[in-house]
Structures are given as C-alpha cells and as structure tokens.
Fold these 4 entries.
Entry 1:
Amino acid sequence: MADGLTVRDLRVSVDGNEILKGIDLTVEPGRVHALMGPNGSGKSTLAFALSGHPGYQITAGSVRLDGEELLGLSPDKRARAGLFLSFQYPASIPGVTVANFLRSARQAVHPGDLPPAKFRQLIFDQLELLEMDPSFLGRYVNDGFSGGEKKRLEMLQLAILAPKYAILDETDSGLDVDALRAVGNSVRALRSAPDNRTGFLIITHYPRILQHIAPDAVHVMIDGRIVLSGGADLSHRIEREGYDVIRQEVAAAGV
C-alpha cells in the first residue's frame, strides 16, 4: 500500500451533531497540504479527530498512516506511529523545563533510540537549524512565552520527535508578522533537512502563513466537507475573493 496519511469518508460528531460529513484527503510524505476554510467549517475538528481526542466521535470512515489504521489506536500510540499535532493554544507547564519536556517526549515516542550524548547533540543541532537560543532549554514550558515563542517551541518539538506526518492546527493564530515569518522559516528549515520526508497538513483560516510556507496542494472546507482542491493559486484566490464566492459556487453546483 502506498505511503501517506490517508483519510477516507471520515465522519465525525460532537455531542450528537455531525461536524465532518465525509472527508477524503491524502497527505503524501514530504509534501505540504493546506486545509483552509471559514470559522466553524470543521477544520480543527479534523485535527482533533485525527489525533484521537475522546470528545470527537468517529461515526464512519478510516484513517491510515502508511497503511496502518489509526482509528483504533489511543493518542499516544498514534504519536508513536508517527503523527504529530501542533495545538492552536499550547498549554503552559510551570516547573517543567523545555529540556526535560523534550527528553520525555522523545523517550515516549522513540523509547531508547538515542543515548544521552546523541540526544543532546540532536537538540543543539535543531536549535541551530531553527535559529533558537540555547537558553530556551532552561525555561519552563510555555510559561510566560510570547505567542511566537510558543510556536517556535512546537517547531522544536516537531524537529526532535521527527514525525512522519505533522498537523499544524491554526499555527498562525495570534501571531504578529515577525513571529509568523519565524514559524515559516522553521518549517522550511525542517523540510530542507537531509532525509526529511515529513508530510504536513497546515490548517488555517487565513492565507497569510502560506506566504511563508509554500503548499503543494490547497483544500477548502465548508460546512464539514472539502468542496474544492487545487494548487497554491487557490489560496491567492481566497485572499482576493473570500470564502463566500466559493460557498455560492458550491451551492449553485449542488455539491
């Protein structure tokens, strides 16, 4: 079976209300897919459903990661299988340093794969790649962090975990121009690293982050369905025309 994060006819309900109404999507290794749509269209529901959040009930469909069915797995086993989710609002963990957090996360996903000296070298290599100050490691996780610092820590965590597929859910939310550029630079650096084949699903409402991370494919979700797919130019069209024009076209076509 071909590699990829493959979603087929996925239907998801929350508190008895159907939010996702049959999603078909494939993210290939090493490629960037952008999922766009207005607020309330179901984008974050897809992210949480893929990660195994218990509040989201899968009523139909399948999700396979390189051929392995994920829907029967707990969230931690999905992470071990190679799935990473960047949260829209990362939690603070006072008292836990970034260094200890990264060590515990790596050990949970890749137990015993690196001796301490090689793990330390990995961290400093990634700090250099992402242009982050090593003093970052001594701070408590997200405690007093700016929005940009929280996102950069998630990029560092992504680099350390080296997942097969990464879902970035509204990672541009609340970021100023400089922080947004920093996140874009981080993702580009990770993509350009030797032997990197991480596939990305970037979930966003606004097209501005796609100015810094060039997508290979763009999908538009409206009312729980992917109604349109295309290349990077589709994000430019959304920036020019907004979502209402696409909604009207979909309604006229009876999709």
Entry 2:
Amino acid sequence: MNLTFVSDLIAAVFSVGIIVGYHILLRMRVRRDPDYTIQALLNKGRSAWVERMMKDKEGILAVQTLRNAIMGATFFASTAVALIVGTITLSVQGDRLQQAWNTLSPIGPLDEHLWLLKLLVLLTDMLVAFVCFAQAIRLFSHVGVLIAVPTTTMRPHLVARLFIQGGRYHTRGMRWYYFAAPMLFWLFGPLLLILSSCVLVVVLHFLDRSPERALDVRTGG
C-alpha cells in the first residue's frame, strides 16, 4: 500500500465515523426529546394539514400545495441525474484531469484506481438521492389522489402517514445531497475530506434542530 491509499482510507473511516456518530447522538437525543428535530415538527404539521384538508374539503388548496412539493422533489431529482451524468463524464476524462488533480493534492500524486473508486462512491450517492426523491414524488402523487376522497372512505390518518413517508424520503434525499459535499472534496485529498465532514456535522446540527429548540438555546430556557 502506498501513502496515498493509506491516508485516503484513514480519512474515509474517520469521516464516516464522524457522520455516523452524529446521527447516533441525534437519535439518542430524539428518544429523550421527540420534538427536538425539525422533522418531528414537520410531521406534526403534515398530519394536522391532511386532517384539515380532508375535513374542510379544501381540495384545490391541497392539490396546489402538493403540486409545489412535487415540483420541488422533481427539481432535486433532475439535479441528481445531471450530477450523475457529470460524475460519469469525469470518470471518462480521468486521463485529462489527472494532472490537475495531482497538482491540488497536498500528499503527492493520486492513485488512478483510487480516484475512480471515489467517483464511484460519489455516483452511488447521487443515485441513492435520485431514488429517494423519486419515491417522494410517487408518494406525494398518491396523497394528491387520496386527499380528495371522502373521510368515510379513506381515514385522514392513513393519508397523513403516506404524506409523512413522502416527506421522509425527501429528507433522506437532501441528506444524501449533503453527503455528496465531503465526497466531492475527497477528490482533492484526504485532508479536505475530514475538514468538510466536520463542517457538515456542524451544519447538520443547526439544520436538524427545530426552531423551538433553537430558540430555547438562545434564550437559555
């Protein structure tokens, strides 16, 4: 094993440990405080929204709102496809770009096979993100049909469960988008992978907290 391979392997293990450790701590915090995350707040809002739409028969408003959600998920899914194509293009033009990557690497020339492995990891990340957003679009479309059904035929809490599941897929897709940032910096070297993973964890810490919990921290409550 050369120095490049060992350093990249150590950096990858360390970065995965940082991100996995953060999510383990987040889950432990959610067990103590179920309302800690913004996702929990959104799920409550989705349940209340579906119940109100079906109870008050606000079909037009419901369809318009779901259309906006579908358009947002479609945008991210299309962007994921574009990034997949871009990643494949990088892998094909590796010989032309290898000299530029070597110049940016602080530890010496990059291993060509390892560089292709990094691109494969990035490609897999974008593919998973695309699948998550596609599932979100599918579930949002189902909700758009079921939300107009009378409550005597379809209970609101079942429709709300589908809506919440679609929201979870959307959140997972965004999460894989965030994971792509350290993977992209990994192409420049292991040091940037570690630094970007640390920055990502800090950003996720602020993004995952609900506004209520963030306000409690600021006010000391």
Entry 3:
Amino acid sequence: MSALLRRYGDRPASVRVLCDAHLRFEVDGEAANEVRKHLGWRVYATNQPAEELNLQKAVLAYRDEYVIERCFGRLKGKPLSLKPMYLQDDDRATGLIRLLTIGLLVLSLLEFTVRRQLAEEGKELKGLYAGNPKRSTARPTTEAILGVFPGDLPDHDHHRREN
C-alpha cells in the first residue's frame, strides 16, 4: 500500500510505501535447556590447600571480598552523582572530583564500620528495606542506612535571626 504525501513548505511531494511485516518464531527447547544448564555457574580458583579452605569457605570468602567496582558505581550513581561536567577550569573539575572522592570514602567507611560492629555483636539491622520492615541484614549498605532517615537536609532559612 502506498500513500501520496503532498508538498509542504520546503519538502517536495513524495510517495510513502506502507507495508506490513509478520514475524513468526519458535523456541528451540533443546538449545534453551542447554543454555539453562550453564546459567549461574562460576569458576573459583585458589592456591590455598583444600584442608584450609574448602569450597563453601572459598565461596563465602569470594562473596565477602572488597569490590572496587562497587565504589565506582557509587561515584557515578545516585549517592554522589559524578556526571559529565562542563567546567572551564581544570582545577575546578579536579577539586570537584576530589571532593566527591572524600564523600565516597565517608560512605565506604560508614558501611565498613557498621558491618564490622554488627559482625562483632552478632546482630542484624531491621527496617532498612521499604515494603519489607521485618527483613534484616548483617551487611547493610550505607545507602540503605541513610535511607531510613526522613527527608533531605532541613531548610535552615526559618532559623535565621531577624535584625
């Protein structure tokens, strides 16, 4: 099917061809099952003897390891929001990045301190997850901890003294 488009402004008259496309597909069950077999598998390697570090301990050690990429995600994500910036002065850009890096260190230190204290006391925190107040964790994120506090920073304009 085609449609004639009339001339409009600087655009010349033209013909637009309209067509329908139909797509039919079928899931290859055998291939899908083969892919499912490999989902979720990870390979762990260590130079520790099996007597000192069995598979279960190795997996737990891996899950608890410090992951630097998480910090970069925080730096680029909502807590600190380092986004492309258009600053004329390189010193200002450097200063902003250094300031955000200090913020990142504060977030990481708060999280580390809370997690270590919870581990030492054998306790967990509840009420950090919206919609699931009974859920508890011994490894809360700083964002979850700070999310418990209501609202943003208070508006201090109403505290000003009048002269």
Entry 4:
Amino acid sequence: MIGSLNGVSSGGWIRYAKEMEDAGADALELNIYFLPTSLDVEGSDIERSYCELLRRVKEQVKIPVAVKLAPYFTSMSNMAKRLEAVGADALVLFNRFYQPDFDLETLEVLTAPSLSTSEELRLRLHWVALLSTRVRPDLAITGGVHTAEDVVKSVMAGAHAVMMTSALLKNGIGHLMKVSKDLVDWMELHQYESIRQMRGSMNAVAVAEPGAYERANYLKVLSSYTLRAGTR
C-alpha cells in the first residue's frame, strides 16, 4: 500500500510521512502540487525546494519514497538526475494541474476537474522512454491511461507501474478487470510471456530510430502530417 502525501509546509510533509510509515504504508508518494505564481520565485528555487523536501522526508522514513512531478521543468532530465542523487526511489510522471474555465453567462471562474484522455499519454511516454535507461529510480506513468493498449505502451516505454484514475471515474471500479483481461489477451495474441519481457522494448535505446524522441524528429513529423493530409 502506497500513501500519497500532498502537504503544504515542510514540517507537515515530514510529520505525516512518518505517521503514514508508522500506520503501515509500504511506500510514500510525495504529490507535489505546487503552482508558483509569484514574479519573484526563480526556477532554481523551485528545483531546490523539491530536492530539499525529498531529502528531509528521506531522513525521517525507511520506506521507499516516490516523487510525483509536473512536466514544466526547463530540464526534466536534469531534475530527474538531481532527485535520484537525493534518494528518490521512484518518479511519477506527470501531475495534472487542473485549469480553470470561464462561464461566459455568469462570468464566473469554473474550477470543476477535467478528466484525462488517452491523448495525454504521449507526453508521459516521451519522457519515460528517454529516462528509463538513464536514471536509477523506477518510473510510473499517471495521466492518460485508460485502456490495455495504454498500459502496453507505458510498459514498453519503460514504466514499472501505471496509474489509472479518470478511467475509473468514467467507467467504475470494474473497469480494472476489463483492462486486466484485455492486457492478458493482448500479450497472448502478440506472444509476450511477461510484463518484464515488454518493459523498455520501445525506449530511446531500444528503438531503431532514437531520434523519434528528440528535436531531430520535428521535420519528419511535419512531413508525415502533410503526406497524410494529401491522401485524403
């Protein structure tokens, strides 16, 4: 059982982390939901605060600690490396910040959550495929996992775990059984004997064209869209 901790003050994080461990949690997830809006906060300060928070929690607990990240760091690879150095046991990619909408009739700001779609998985696949052979912490994907195919893609990118929330809110808890059955059916159809066999088989090291994960693929993407549009 993994306890997901979303705190405010460093003292609160540390206290509740210890209490979760004492209550029997097998691991902790630091769900850092922090959206800086001050004009005076620099990016380096934010990065430093993440590392410092992780360091202080790791000093207080003996169980594994994962850090749930937002995708907005200037250098995601470097941030992953820094968290590894501080002692992160796993990284969870990525946090979804809920964005407001406007009601044009009442002129109110709407704060209702928007559920994810499978389209959002692409950002997670991109970074897990790049990081899975370059950092020690396990990698988990959250956001955009709705189907067995989404699970397969996540594992092939290199994920050790996938998380599902929006799909369960839409379809009910029984959807887990469907995804599990569909996953087994897919693996049998494609002759995969285990999850381990699939893991990382399409990361940046394993694929024939690693440039697909880099800036060098930009023109190829645009060209492929033009070619597809021309066939319609």
